Amino acid sequence: QPCRKEDVKRFSDKEGAECATSKIKDSNNYRGACAPYRRLHVCDKNMEKIATSTTSDTLLAEVCYAAKEEGASLQGYYEQYRANNTDFKTHICTELARSFADIGDIVRGRDLFYGNTQEKTKRKQLDKKMKDIFKQIHSGLTKKGAKDHYKDENGGNFFKLREDWWTANRHTVWEAITCKAEGAYFRPTCSMNGSGAQAKDKCRCKDEKGTNETDQVPTYFDYVPQYLRWFEEWAED
């Protein structure tokens, strides 16, 4: 299961801000990036158990499973959190977009949050798992041009391959994380006839013909550095 028992209560401020250098990757002081309440847990535990011999399709299925459960977890506590915090005005689509971006960072090896000692160990294990999986995917590339283009130049991280894998599959992950969502994305980010429009159904955009609500992803949070997203989120929390 993607979610553990401790992941159930989302938006909890019980643990306070997570700013310790031991819990934030590459942090060297306590005044930098701080993980927001939503990010203290994420439903990705199934990804820790993916076989390293997996294919790209299997990886996508597991990432979508994690995204689906993450979306359900957030929505289960979102209204309760808003009811108890009347000054909290952030839309559920925005919260889903933030977790979507965090999942993208995990896939691409960019995630900054380690958590407590136990979580830190599991985060490092997950990061190694992702490296091994993309090494396997790279070994399965049949075209020499592709193999050369995506060859590893970063100590086994395969960053270029991971980046393009995410770009190719992000729309499917967005479908998964918003599968039970209701309402509109508050920013007019859909491209409709050359102008901006809101994603009015399940936080999704229509396609160019206006008939398919899953054609476009209405957010680019996953291309904004994680610590900058967290700064904005803290301003709202």
Automatic annotation (TrEMBL):
InterPro entries: Duffy-ag-bd_sf, Duffy-antigen-binding. GO terms for molecular function: host cell surface receptor binding. It comes from the Eukaryota. GO terms for cellular component: membrane. Residues 32-229 form the Duffy-antigen binding domain. This is Erythrocyte membrane protein 1. It comes from Plasmodium falciparum (malaria parasite P. falciparum). The gene is var.
